[in-house]
What does this fold into?
Amino acid sequence: MPSDINLSRRLLEQFLTVAQEQHFGRAAERLGMSQPPLSQSIQRLERSVGARLLDRGPGGVRLTAAGAAFATDARRLLDLQAAAITRARRVAQGLEGEVRVGYVSLLSHLYLPTMLRTAAEQLPGIRIHLQHGSSAAVVDQVRTGVLDLGFLRDPARLDDDLVSSVIATERIGAALPEGHHLADTAEIDLLRLRDEDFVLPDPAALPVLAEQLRLACHEAGFAPRQAAVADDLSGLLSYVAAGLCVSLLPEGLRHLAAAGVTFVRLRGNAGYLDTTVYAVHRPAPDTAVTHLLSALTTPHP
It folds into this structure.
């Protein structure tokens, strides 16, 4: 029967260092300690866990399946511990401290500069730490407290333990390859794309945008002819830039699109042609997060 053990930060850091270095000697040197005490600490950890975490060999060590799983959870425990300490200190100190902000691809160029500039001018005591991730990862890290604030585009339905607020609403436009016969047109009806090959969002990765495009095309009287699929906005833009497909994307991306992409406005007022950027946080955020949300404004196009 495994014995109780205090999973101290030091012990978790020792194990993760050995896992990263794959060698007790190098790990001990990096930790500023001798090798025998480090080996003994890891052995006690394995006895307490009740599983072999490392396979030892003449050339070093490697993680077992149990060790790999434990390493993932150990990193998460260290992140949560750091988050708890940071949050307590920030609450105690008011507006002094760090706010950890997560975001999905491309939003960093469109909205985060305004937040960073405003924070530097109005909230000089706040340090903002940015972390990129997928929508699912950002939501999970906001929920667990690893992140204080997340910026997402059209997130799937959120659970009641999170709060979202609208930061900006953008129009969806037609993204066409440069040289396309409609690229010089100021505005078109969506129906004019019915015979085009489309690169479409992967419904698993971008469920809201994928459903919007399906409904918008259905309302226009056709089903988009799928030639390719991408799981992020950069991938969608890349297919269009390559001249292989057209797509429907938020018009704000026109400032960031690679050479070879032209955006053309779509006629109509259907709600399916709007996409929304949200800020997501836990209920009752601390003062720093509240001030950041109040200070954030939509950048000019």
